[in-house]
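In response to the reviewer comment on reproducibility (Comment 2.3), we provide here a single inverse folding case reported in full, input and output, so that an independent group could reproduce the run without further information from us. The structure tokens appear first.
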């Protein structure tokens, strides 16, 4: 097979990072659905590997952590019996961390919303930092163990617990969340500055993800058929978010603000992360 021209690859990637679905991207570029999906997987893998290696020894000061819900294959109640309780079918959660100052997303993790995933995520986050930081999470109880396990106590950790009117666990997946009736800032480890215990920026990042990745948009028929496609889309999104798009308030990219890079990446550079012998079509 012939390799897809780089110009077409760049068009496809540009369409995907701007929030278009796979089918819409096909219509816009003339590429086949299978071609677009293969390119997404290939460039997503390259982006994941690059960020895994590059986003190290970070000089972050304030980090915020949150989780965002999505689903793969089918919604939980519609998953066939043969796939029940199998990861990648039904509810899927993405853990994200965000630097409150530079808006850099140093890492993310796709998994279940449980202690195992939370531990892996916090351990990965801690390994990327150059020094002690202030960390804020929401009130999910698994973080109490996961943060201590990942950071080995070397962190100023505050938890922001929010109270909602008539709140239930299912409310977190509703289109319109319940009304917040109050918050409680708690010191968990170290000496966090209570004035800076917040999850506002990382929660705003959830909106950015929903706008930039069609498969995260609520109340639509857009979703990931396979968890591998979701992971690829996330890697591509965060590569473009961190390195290729100027943040509105920073006037530069998060990677430049964090001292990780020195220029704004073009879509062609992101596509160029793939090896030259890659067959995209």
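Designed residues, in position order:
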């Amino acid at each position: 097979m012939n390799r897809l021209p780089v110009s077409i690859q760049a068009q496809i990637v540009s369409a995907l990072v701007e929030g278009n679905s796979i089918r819409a991207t096909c219509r816009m570029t003339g590429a086949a659905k299978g071609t677009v999906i293969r390119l997404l997987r290939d460039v997503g893998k390259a982006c994941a590997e690059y960020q895994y290696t590059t986003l190290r020894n970070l000089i972050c000061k304030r980090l915020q952590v949150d989780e965002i819900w999505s689903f793969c294959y089918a919604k939980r109640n519609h998953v066939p019996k043969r796939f029940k309780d199998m990861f990648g079918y039904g509810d899927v959660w993405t853990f994200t961390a965000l630097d409150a100052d530079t808006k850099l997303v140093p890492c993310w993790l796709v998994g279940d919303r449980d202690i195992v995933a939370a531990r892996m995520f916090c351990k990965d986050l801690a390994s990327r930092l150059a020094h002690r930081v202030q960390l804020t999470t929401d009130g999910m109880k698994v973080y109490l163990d996961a943060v201590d396990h990942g950071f080995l106590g070397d962190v100023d950790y505050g938890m922001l617990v929010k109270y909602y009117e008539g709140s239930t666990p299912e409310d977190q997946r509703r289109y319109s969340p319940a009304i917040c009736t109050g918050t409680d800032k708690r010191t968990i480890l170290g000496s966090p500055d209570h004035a800076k215990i917040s999850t506002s920026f990382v929660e705003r990042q959830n909106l950015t993800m929903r706008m930039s990745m069609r498969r995260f948009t609520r109340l639509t028929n857009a979703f990931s058929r396979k968890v591998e496609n979701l992971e690829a889309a996330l890697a591509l999104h965060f590569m473009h978010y961190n390195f290729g798009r100027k943040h509105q308030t920073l006037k530069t990219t998060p990677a430049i603000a964090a001292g990780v890079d020195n220029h704004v990446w073009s879509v062609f550079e992101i596509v160029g992360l793939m090896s030259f012998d890659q067959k995209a079509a």
